[in-house]
Amino acid sequence: MPSKPYRRIRSALASLAAVALTAVVAGCGSGSGDSTSTGSEGSAISAERCAENKAAGKITYLSGYQYQSSVSILEYIAAAKLGYFKDLCLTVDLKPGSGDTAQNTKLLAGGQATVSPVAEQDVIQARANGIDITGISSYSNAGLEILMTNKDITDLTQLDGKVVGHKGYVPATVEAMMVKAGVKWDSLKLVKQGYDPSVLPRRQGGLEALTGFVSNEPNQLKAAGDDVTVWKPVDYGVPSSLGAMAVNPAFAKEHPQAVEDILRAALHAYGYCSSGARHIAECVGYAAQLSGPTYDKKLNTTIWKTEIKVAEDNPSPGRPLGGIDLKNVAALVGMLHQFKIVPAGVTAARAKGWFDTSPVTNIYAADKLVWPAP
Fold first, then answer.
1. What is the pLDDT of residues 166-199, one digit of tens each?
2. Nearest residue to 263 (alpha-carbon basis) of 106, 90, 125, 132
3. By CB neighbour count within 10 A (0-12 exposed, 13-18 middle, 19+ buried), where does 31 fall?
4. Phi-psi region for residue 252, left (φ > 0), alpha (ψ -120 to 50) or beta?
């Protein structure tokens, strides 16, 4: 059965100093109290590794959706603005994505993009469709997709026979949650809605539930004074992913250390941008600079805070931040089979081969991010 469509990434003296510093702090965690960047090329890497990263040439980072302050987006913006990429001799060009995951995966496979945020389930679907990309990191086995209802719905089975809104399709994770909760799926009246979440509290067209993202629509509704109930697939044991990244496989094969250092810089920035209100405001400000005067800093600050809380509350078991849980990959394959989204030939063992855990593993020592680089 064919897959269903899916939706929606110095001087020689300075180098010598970096080598000496690395010998002292290798294996130590990166600090988050300051940017720790000198703004000088190669200040956080050995001369040899710096030369290898320079040889990788221009690296194109394609965001998931514009320059929204989401995980897998804001920390890459911050890594560029704070000089972390430059510290590691990486030349990274930031490009805003349209929100179309299918387009991002094709651009990755074709080499027009080098790295891009792609959910683990979307990596599996892309590979099932012959699109060659490799998953390299994920912050959590929890995802952002949720279902919202008005407060009078206290059990999901109350939605039987009711109108449920979506943005083009109901995410597999939300469908899995509802089915697991006992909802009679075939009884639902599924309707496509726009991007205005106020249709739910207004019960437009008899609407009783609406899909969304935990960091977006619920925060918009709360700001407008509307109180809704948020139903999270993770609370029902449904697998997903958060802040997952994918890479062009040909680039990763030719420049494995550059891939490691892209993640190293981003994770270092993640720590910085998560370490208090001042740093959060600074990092969101960088995204606003790239986006223009209409950028909603307040909403985007809330988006970032919500998403890093999801990652904090749902760490990948037994792995450092960014580490891929291959058991979760297997669980995702099972879910995608349940809803006939991928063909039977996509086995858990095969799907695990579409992910590379080594880039994250290689940048940690004793579960601490190694900064500077070796």
1. 999 999 999 999 999 999 999 999 999 988 999 9
2. 90
3. middle
4. alpha
Burial pattern 187-224, b for ≥16 Cβ within 10 A else e, equals: ebeeeebeeebebbbeeeeebbbbbbbbbbbbbbbeee
Burial of 230 (0-12, 13-18, 19+ CB in 10 A): middle
H or E element in which residue 212 lies: strand 207-213
pTM over 0.85: yes
Our CA angle for 251, 322, 65, nearest 5°, is 70
Q: In what order do the strands lie in the sheet with 134-137?
A: 91-95, 58-62, 115-117, 245-247, 134-137
% of the chain at pLDDT higher than 90: 89
In angstroms, the CA 168 to CA 166 distance is 6
Cα 358 from chain centroid? 18
Length of the chain: 374
Dihedral (C-alpha) 25, 26, 28, 31: value to the nearest 10 degrees? 70
Closest CA to 147 of 180, 173, 168: 173
Residues 6 or more apart in contact with residue 67 via CB below 8 angstroms? 73, 77, 94, 96, 287, 290, 291, 295
Question: Could you tell me the two tokens for 237?
Answer: 């044991």
List, in sequence order, the alpha helices (H) in 134-183. 172-180
Q: Is the dihedral of CA 64, 68, 73, 77 positive or negative?
A: positive
pLDDT digits (tens, 9 = 90+) for 314-368: 999 999 999 999 999 999 999 999 999 999 999 999 999 999 999 999 999 999 9
